[in-house]
Design a protein that fits this description.
By secondary structure, the protein is an alpha/beta fold. The protein is built from 19 helices and 21 strands.
Amino acid sequence: MSVQIHRNARIRTLDPARPEASVLVVTDGVITAAGGEDLLAAHDGEVVDHGGAFLMPALADVHNHHLTAGRADLFELQFDGTEDLPGLLSAIRKWSAELPPDGWVVGGGWGSTLIPELSTSDALAALDEACGGRPVLLRDDSCHNRWVSSAALERAGISADSGLLIESALIPVERAYAASAPSDVEQDARASLRGIEILHSFGITAFQDAAASLPMLRALKHLDDTGRLDAWVVTSLQVNDQIFGTHPLGQDLIDLREDYRGGHHRPDFVKIFLDGVPTSKTAAFLRPYLPDDVHGPSWRGETTMTADELTGWLLRVAAQGMSAKIHCTGDASVRMTLDAVAAVRAAGHDDAKFHIAHGQYVAEEDVPRLAELGVTADLSPALWFPGVIFDAICACVPRERAEKLHPNRNLVDAGVLIAGGSDWPVVPSPNPWPGIQGLVTRADPTGTHPGELWPEQALTLEEALHAYTLGAARAMGVDDVTGSLVAGKSADFVVLDRDPFAVPADQLAGTRAEETWFAGRRVYQRR
C-alpha cells in the first residue's frame, strides 16, 4: 500500500462540505482524506510539501480532438490563424522542400477570413507552384474547410477551378490522403500520447474526444492495456462525418465500442454533425445570412439531417445506453436538437446525456429549454471574446446578431450545466486559462482585439472554474472518479503558479501548471 501526504498547500477541493483544505491524503492513487494539519498525525507515508502553492482539481476538457492535435504536433505543417496568403505560401514552399516529390503537404490552422481569397483559380495556381506540384491538404481554423492543390484534387477524383473545399466536399481528399499513408496502432498511440502530454502540461487529466474513429479506439485501447493511458478519456463515436473522412460510421462503429472500453477509456457517446460553421455559411440559422452572389438574400444554412432523422438517431443510441454530443453552431440546429431531445425524454430515457456542442448561437426562448431537458452547453471553442473567428462571422452574419455569441450568463442563470472545452486543434492550444479569463471578462486575453463581446454574459471565476472541472466531469459522466478532491475519487490535481482568486481577472490567462498529478502520480512538472 502506497500512502502520500500532500501538505502545505492552499487546496480548493470543489467539495461543498469542505471547500478548502491544506492537506490531502492519497492511498494507492485514490484520495482518502482532505482536511487540515491534524491529518498529519493520523497518517504515515511519503510527505509531499507543496511550499504553500495553490492546488485544485485537475482540469477537464469536454471537447477536443487530441489524436488529431498530437499528430499535427508531431508530423504536420502548422499555421498561425492570422497568417496572410503570402505567409502561407512561404511556409508551404519551405515545408515542401523537405518532402519527396510525391509527398503530401498536410497541416492547417489558416484563418477563415482568407476563404474569399483562397477560392480563386489564381490562389490554386500559387499553391501548386509553392508545393512543387505535390498533393496538399490544409485545414482552416474551424477544421470544417480545406485548401488543397491540383494534385490532391486529381487523386480524389475532383474536377474544380478552385482549391477551396467546404464541409463534406473535402471528404474525398481526406480519404485519398488516408489511403496514401495508412497509420498503424503504434503510430496512432504515439500521436494520442503526444496529445495527452500536451494536455498534462496545462493541468488537464480528463477529456472528451469529440469525433472518435476506429483507429483512435484501437490506439486508446492499446495505451490502456499497456498502462500508458494517464487520463480519463471519453470518446464520441461518429454517426455521420462532414469533415474527417472517417470509416466506419454510425451503427457499424457503435457495435464495436465495447471491444475498446478500458479502465481509463469510456466510449459512451456518439457524435452527430448537425450543421457546419457560420464562417462558411453552413451553420443553420433561424434568420438569413448576409446576402451574397452564391446564396442570395434568404439563405439560412441547412442541417445534415431532417428533424425525424435526428430524433431517430437520438432514440436509437439512448436505447443502447449511450449519450450524444451534437454539433450545433446556429440557433436553428440548436432548436432542432432540443425538439429531438424532448422526444427522447418523453420516451423515458432520463439517463442519456446530451451536449449542444459549441452552441454559439441560442435563441433567447430556447435557453431555459436546455435546463428543462437536461442538456449540457459544451462551451467550445473559446469564442466568447473578440478575435479572428468572430471577425469572420461578422462577414457572414449581421453584426448585431453576430455579437449575440455564447449567452453564457443566461445559460447559467437558467440552471444549465455548462462545460468548458477547447475544440483543440481548431483552437491552437488546449490551454484553458485564456478561455477562463475570457469567460470572466469577455475581452481578448491577448489584447490583440479591442473591446468586449456582449459583456453582460460574463461569468464569475468560480463559475468558470467549475465549468472546466466538476462541470465538465459531470457532462462527460466521469464525475464518479474525478472533478473534485473528495475521498474515493482519483487523486487528479494540478499545482498552479498562482492563486487565481488572488489575481486581477486580466491576469488569469497567464496562469501556469507547475505540476499535474493523475491517480497519485506526477505526470507533468514544469521546468
